[in-house]
């Protein structure tokens, strides 16, 4: 699992690569939270290269989303692989987290 | 195609990596589609993590896994020596209608497993939890 980040168009884009599972979900969450600055008003989690996620990873994403909501920062995820999009739908995360099909769409939506 | 394999998992999340590698190797032999490989990994992780976190298992209490493909049917058998736990009766469904701020942390793993299988059988027998999960996704 690797986490990288960049700032584009006023949004912080955090990209995750590999697997987020029961062995590394906490590490994933800490890695994401550590790249978010207090003045980041919009955070996009890019999952294009995320190949696997379990409930442990969903838990981390929920905690990240809750943390951002508390300080009224925007949060969205983008570019989910099919199997991961399916997992998001099953647990109803598509109702509580904004999902965009591409990073470009996500950045455009955050800017508006 | 009828093939089967046995995987022994140490009761440690760090051993998931070895389990996933064994599933991938078996999936190639069984000619499973990608989405089934994802689901089987997820099912094994959710059940194993549950045993590790709540089953009270010791270091030398491995989790025994069997995977079997027969025609269009995939059978997953999991045996552990943890506390008796019936994942069919003992775990409530989460409330998926709650907004973000009210969503509890956790409780999604077993729900995911239940939605991904066609049959789930549980038995407490000879001091072991025996769980059998069946999916007919290969039809």
Topology:
The complex is a heterodimer of chains A (about 110) and B (about 140).
Chain A: E1 2-8, E2 11-20, H1 25-35, E3 42-53, H2 55-70, E4 74-78, H3 82-90, H4 93-96, E5 98-100, H5 103-111
Parallel strand pairs in A: 2-3, 3-4, 4-5
Antiparallel strand pairs in A: 1-2
Helix pairs in contact in A: 1-2
Chain B: E1 3-9, H1 16-30, H2 34-54, E2 63-70, E3 73-80, H3 109-116, E4 119-125, E5 128-135
Antiparallel strand pairs in B: 1-2, 2-3, 3-5, 4-5
Which features characterize this protein?
heterodimer; A: 112 residues; alpha/beta; Transcription Regulator spoIIAA; 33% strand; globular; B: 139 residues; alpha+beta; five-stranded antiparallel beta sheet
Query: Could you estimate the helical fraction of the residues of chain B in percent?
Result: 25-40%
CATH homologous superfamily label of chain A: STAS domain
Described by strand count, sense and barrel closure, the largest sheet of chain A is: 5 strands, mixed
Strand order of the largest sheet of chain A: 1-2-3-4-5
Shape of chain A: globular
Strand order of the largest sheet of chain B: 1-2-3-5-4
What structural class do you assign from the helix and strand content of chain B?
A: alpha+beta
Give the domain tally of chain A.
1
Task: Write down the oligomeric state.
Answer: heterodimer
Question: Could you describe the 3D structure shown?
Answer:
The complex is a heterodimer of chains A (about 110) and B (about 140). Chain A is an alpha/beta fold. Chain A has one domain: STAS domain (Transcription Regulator spoIIAA, 2-Layer Sandwich), CATH 3.30.750. Chain A is about 45% helix and about 35% strand. Chain A has a five-stranded mixed β-sheet with strand order 1-2-3-4-5, sandwiched between helices. In chain A, helix 1 packs parallel to helix 2. The radius of gyration of chain B is 15 Å and the shape is globular. The model of chain B has no long low-confidence stretch (mean pLDDT about 95). Chain B contains three helices and five strands, in the order βααββαββ.
């Amino acid at each position: 699992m690797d986490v990288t980040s960049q700032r584009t168009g006023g949004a912080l884009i955090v990209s995750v690569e590999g697997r987020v599972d029961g062995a590394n979900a906490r590490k994933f969450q800490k890695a994401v939270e550590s790249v978010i600055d207090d003045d980041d008003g919009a955070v996009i989690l890019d999952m294009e290269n995320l190949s696997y996620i379990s409930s442990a990873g969903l838990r981390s994403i929920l905690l990240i989303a809750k943390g951002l909501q508390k300080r009224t920062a925007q949060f969205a995820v983008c570019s989910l692989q099919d199997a991961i999009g399916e997992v998001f739908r099953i647990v109803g995360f598509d109702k509580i987290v904004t999902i965009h099909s591409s990073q470009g769409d996500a950045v455009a939506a955050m800017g508006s | 195609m009828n093939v089967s394999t046995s995987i022994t998992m140490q009761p440690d999340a760090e051993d998931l990596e070895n389990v996933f590698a064994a599933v991938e190797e078996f999936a190639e032999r069984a000619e499973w589609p990608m989405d089934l490989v994802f689901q089987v990994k997820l099912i094994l992780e959710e059940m194993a993590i549950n045993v590790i976190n709540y089953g009270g298992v010791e270091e030398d209490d491995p989790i025994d896994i069997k995977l079997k493909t027969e025609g269009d049917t995939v059978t997953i058998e999991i045996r552990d020596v943890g506390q008796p736990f019936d994942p069919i009766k003992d775990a409530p469904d989460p409330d998926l209608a709650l907004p973000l701020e009210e969503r509890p942390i956790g409780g999604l793993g077993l729900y995911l497993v239940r939605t991904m299988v066609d049959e789930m059988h549980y038995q407490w027998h000879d001091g072991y939890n025996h769980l059998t999960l069946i999916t007919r996704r290969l039809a």
